[in-house]
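User: Structure tokens for both sequences below?

Assistant:
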Amino acid sequence: MVLSTLAFGTVQSWALGFFQAGAGLVAILWAVDAWRTQRLRVSRNLLQLPLVGLFVVGLVQVLPLGGAAGAATGGLASAPAGTLSLDPYATRFVLLQLASLIIYFSAALVYIDSPSRLRLVVRVVTIFGFLLALFGMFQYFTNPAQIYWFRQPKFAQPFGPFVNRHHFAAYMELTLALPLGLLASGAIAVERRLLYLFAVMIMSAALVLTTSRGGILSLGAEVLFVAAIAGLVRRKQEKDEAEEGAAAESRVRAALVRVGIGFALVVALLAGAVWLGGEESLARLFGTVSADDPTSGRVQFWQGTWGVIKEYPLLGAGLGAFSVAYTRHDVLNGATRLEQAHNDYLQILSDAGIVGGALGLFFIFMLFRYGFARFASKDKFRRGVAAAALAGCFAVLVHSFFEFSLHMTSNALLFLLLAALATLNGRVEDPDTKRRTRRKRRSASANAGTREGEVRTA
């Protein structure tokens, strides 16, 4: 996770090669563990199925099944006739990347299997996000045009190690979700809350300094999401049926109060970032908005993407083949070279068709279904992690309406890691909490039996 981020987000061939080699090493160590223990450990988490299904769609797209690739390119030798993908080379490249992500995700589901490992991963993500935010802010104030003070990208506004500032904003949405969610759910000890709050403020300020409108909107959505569900993870002692109605009403009031606090926090973060960045930051934020086209060309991009979807509705034009497919539907007649649709939902439909869209919807549905189910845990820290990780995923899913952050390898990896943290089963719960819960249940059963015996005797 750390190395893939520092390597410019892992978008260049050399970085992707190391990323895939790392996935291969994980697979080898997994096999060694299975040989040593005589048991192959595999997670039954259904979130893996949509990813595997998307991989199968990509395999079908590069098979010689008599598709329209040759016709779409005028019969050029660069596109073998018969494949469903318009760019089979790019599709194979995406398949390697997707296979690596599946290995990392599946390994996280299997080997984050104890409370100590859960806490370790949460600490690593939080500390790294904090340090990355400090680095991004320092670079912004000293030399904002270069990455690591030596690489100056063309036609882009970098931030931190990322060529695109919007991708850094999305990364901050994922990292700050953990300390923010843990604070809101009351899972942090009192003596550590100021430290976590400071980390949240630094990461939020770094995000706002990117002046990414989609990132700032997603940050607001994330804060409100955390505020709305914080009451759900603050479980209280069991009450009798007569008190349940009052308790529910109290939770609703508490949720409304937290939403109001969330609004205030968003305003405070914006004001703090503007204060740090000065007038230049404010001008950069609103200077990107054009009166003629406030979407910065995205409406035209989405119109062309919709044309691709209508031409290839079932299985799409091919994973990674968007830039080739888009040229035939470019409403700007080639004025801008477009590699991504700037909307992950439209792009999965254009790349993988209705089948890919259905797989994406299934993934999102199961993510939130599993995540909300983890709120029933008796372990306070486990509940807080589930809420925090869901908040981070929710923020990036909102951001995906305007950007393509999940096409960045580092962002996709961290998103899947948070999805794993949100949906891990009971192995990561504190055993002391489980024992206390069982003792309370036995005590309650014994008391109930005593009361029933007293009634019968009377």
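Moving on to the next sequence.
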Amino acid sequence: MKNKNLFALLPIIVFLILFVGVGIATKDFYVMPTVVGFLIALIVAFLQNKNNSFEKKLSIVAKGAGDENIITMCLIFILAGAFSGAVKAAGGVESTVNFGLSILPSSFIIVGIFIIGCFISVSMGTSVGTIAALSPIALGIAEKTGFSVPLCIGAVVCGAMFGDNLSMISDTTIAAVRTQGCEMKDKFKQNFFIVLPAAIITILIFIFKASNADIDVTEVTGNLSYNFIQSIPYLVVLFGALAGLNVFVVLISGTLISVIIGLALGCFKFVEVFVVIGDGIAGMYEITIISLIVAGVVALVKENGGIEYIIQFIKSKISGRKGAELGIALLASVVDICTANNTVAIVMAGPIAKEISNEFDVDAKTTASILDIFTSVWQGLIPYGAQLLTAASLAGITPIDIMPNLFYPILMGVSALIFILLIKKRK
């Protein structure tokens, strides 16, 4: 048995105390940049274990940050950013939103907001981006139809969280898959199977909530002009990933197609191509740096016996594969509640979850799905997360107002628990 050491977890504890403490004290969980908190945690990790020299510790950090999965994950983040920047500049986001709204039956407007949110989030790979794109439209619908603003915005957030843990280019999906070493398509299929019941029930709830609606969508949103060609890059990425193509090939292809469409339609000039791609990549800088620092911190924590302590603690409290899956779900939930960032939570909890899954013979795609789902559950519910804060600020309401209408994140958690407890999984 490896040595276990509770004190080795001090760097992670310091980060959580700083991040949560500053957030509570200032009532703003985004005052302290996450990267600064992890940098302090890295310094604390360097100060531990005097038996190892500074050079030895530096070597451990370098090996942790230079792990094949970590570097691959960072490269995918960069390519996903390039695709996001190119497709947005080419008009893909606006056209896709307008296309969805234009084909909606008026009596299903609230359900339509949710379904469009699902498609946009799966296509864009970002829940916050989906909320930013759809919230102004949902607010206009609420003002013109008499539906409550929290209900319409709640439908947006529910749709955004659907794709947050399913999209092939979502940073959470990338992090979950890379930390567990499974195939993207395998994780997607299992993840989709788990959350589908939650999505169906959410649709039924929104149908009931809006059963008396009778409006003309175009009267609310104005001219819904769109060009279906601008949505093609999203379809290429989605179906390419489902077909099992290499994720690098998929993202590069999607980016090139976006550039070609953008140039052909005059959305930007050739000299601006590098700017729009660069802007997209810049949006991934922070999570890339955080991933490298977290990998270094986790490497030192593991070297000092912290990971083994967690494994042994969970092992002492649970038994069997189902217990291990519940333990991973709890781990992912706690870390996300503390960090208010589901990607960071997965990067932090991923290596620990991997050790637990190896110990209890949990399938890699199952672990990746559990990590992604439960971090998304809480990310879609906590009032201090970027998702609810963004939605609330755009709608002029408070996050607390939206929370009673967040049916999908709650049902997603229930579906995942049923999957863990009742569905028999093959080895």
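User: Anything stand out in the second?

Assistant: The chain has a mean pLDDT of 83.
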